[in-house]
Design brief:
Structural class of chain A: mainly beta
CATH architecture of the largest domain in chain B: Alpha-Beta Complex
CATH class of chain A: Mainly Beta
Shape of chain A: globular
Strand content of chain A: 25-35%
Largest sheet of chain A: 5 strands, antiparallel
Strand order of the largest sheet of chain A: 4-3-2-1-5
Largest sheet of chain B: 2 strands, parallel
Distance between the termini of chain B: 35 Å
Oligomer: heterodimer
CATH topology of chain A: SH3 type barrels
Helix content of chain A: under 10%
Number of domains of chain B: 2
Radius of gyration of chain A: 14 Å
CATH superfamily of the largest domain in chain B: Nitrile hydratase alpha /Thiocyanate hydrolase gamma
CATH topology of the largest domain in chain B: Nitrile Hydratase, Chain A
Strand order of the largest sheet of chain B: 1-4
Structural class of chain B: alpha/beta
Shape of chain B: globular
Order of helices and strands of chain A: EEHEHEE
CATH architecture of chain A: Roll
């Protein structure tokens, strides 16, 4: 099991990457910044499972909360409306300034 | 079969299902009885299971606390097995309304709500629920006040979600069984609220 890199409350940025294959990080959320709501546990990597491999070691899975207004600049509704998405650790980076979200 | 005499050619996926099933049976990997039992098991799961969980949470504050902390374990208390997946119950309050979607496919808490409705799997619902939830909910006839926060949960990975709706007013003293009759499927997905005591 891979150790958790982020804690609840931490700001994280979803990588803006477009790998081929079975990926469970929706397109619309890539490149967005949100806050870790909780750590759900560790689960086999679905990208590996889809290739008939074990997906181990298990990766931490997070629920990340995004403000709708930050995901969709033209969002209509309450300023506080949010979207919560499950994202695996290898898709997340610390939301440092100057981080453009592109991998390595 | 109900549609005998109303013959239509099999669709692509029906043909794939029949072909694969017959091959598996022919090769001795599965028996027809096992296939029937699996289908029966799927059909036996209906939203009444979810309604039972919600009604218990309404009458038992301790259970509600445990449900919000660990949905899977709380369901075990009611004899409901939620295998392999983790269940997260999300609570509606006057300040927060929750709704569930799976934008990637159609992940759904089948163990508590059964087979998902067609609209839940539609591209329309899946793409718009994360983008304009207030407009989508209005189409279901649910108008959420502007001052209420909407939380949309995209079940993209290993969690499954159930909305714990608010208990309708005017149901003081109702039994758990009677309360459960107010809890409809859509209120546990978050696109409706439970029926009122006089609906």
């Amino acid at each position: 099991m891979v150790e958790a890199r982020f804690k609840p409350g931490e700001r994280v940025k979803v990588m803006k990457a477009y790998p081929l294959g079975h990926v469970r990080t929706p397109f619309y959320i890539r490149g967005c910044t949100g806050t870790v709501e909780r750590i759900c546990g560790a689960f086999p990597n679905p990208e590996e499972l889809a290739q008939m491999r074990s997906g181990l070691p298990a990766l931490p899975l997070y629920r990340v909360r995004f403000r709708q207004k930050e995901v969709w600049p033209d969002y209509r509704g309450n300023e506080d409306d949010v979207l919560e998405v499950e994202i695996f650790q290898h898709w997340l980076e610390p939301a440092d300034e100057g981080n453009d979200g592109r991998p390595g | 079969m109900a549609d005998q005499g109303n013959y239509r050619p099999l669709s692509y996926f029906q043909l794939m299902e029949v072909s694969l099933r017959e091959l598996l049976v022919e090769k001795g990997i599965l028996t027809n009885e096992q296939v029937d039992a699996a289908v029966e098991d799927m059909r036996s799961r209906t939203p009444e299971r979810g309604a039972k969980v919600v009604a218990r949470a309404w009458v038992d504050a301790g259970f509600k606390q445990r449900l919000l902390e660990n949905g899977t374990k709380a369901c075990e208390e009611l004899g409901l097995d939620v295998p392999a997946l983790k269940l997260l119950a999300v609570e509606n309050t006057p300040q927060v309304h929750n709704a569930i979607v799976c934008t990637l496919c159609s992940c759904y808490p089948r163990m508590l709500l059964g087979i998902p409705p067609e609209w839940y799997k539609s591209r329309n619902y899946r793409s718009r629920m994360v983008r304009e939830p207030r407009a989508v909910l209005a189409e279901f006839g649910l108008r959420i006040p502007e001052s209420t926060q909407i939380r949309v949960h995209d079940s993209t990975a290993d969690m499954r979600y159930i909305v714990l709706p608010m208990r309708p007013a005017g149901t003081d003293g109702w039994s758990e069984e009677r309360l459960a009759t107010l809890v409809n499927r859509d209120s546990m997905i978050g696109v409706a609220v439970p029926k009122g005591p006089r609906d």
